[in-house]
Amino acid sequence: MIDLEKEIENAFVKYGSQVKGVLKTKSDKVAKGTVKELKSTSPKKSGNYAKTWTSKKNSNSVSYSNIVHNDKNYRLTHLLENGHATRKGGRTRAFPHIKQAEEKAIKNFEKEVKQEIEKL
Which domain holds residue 60? Predict the structure, then answer.
């Protein structure tokens, strides 16, 4: 009976490590794709804003994540995404690009992880 318990435990540990690996690789892949999409869909006046999109990996013993962010022009993201008030009382036009990329990334991540886990 004890051997059966150990075998079941080992199977779950092995499956857990495989799932963790899938999540890590798919997270990296989706983050890279999101950066590429944001670089192509961001507003381009001089091009500096679009060029500075990047992703950052955060990991510790318990979790792993990727953060997609604008490295140098982070102050502009909210203003461009939502528009803002002008000095004369008007409003600027919004350039929604981050929300669309986020929704697409979430959808792709869920789909790819589900497909990969079903193969295990």
Answer: 2-119
- Phi and psi angles of residue 64, each rounded to the nearest 5 degrees, phi first: -145, 135
Beta carbons within 10 angstroms of residue 42's beta carbon: 22
Say how far apart CA 116 and CA 18 lie, in whole Å.
Answer: 10
Q: Say how far apart CA 29 and CA 110 lie, in whole Å.
A: 12
Among residues 38, 104, 105, the alpha carbon closest in space to that of 65 is found at 105
Number of domain units in the chain: 1
What spatial distance separates the first Cα and last Cα of the chain, rounded to whole Å?
26
pLDDT digits (tens, 9 = 90+) for 59-93: 988 889 999 999 999 999 999 999 999 999 999 99
Q: Which pLDDT tens digit goes with each residue over 5-31?
A: 999 999 999 999 999 999 999 999 999
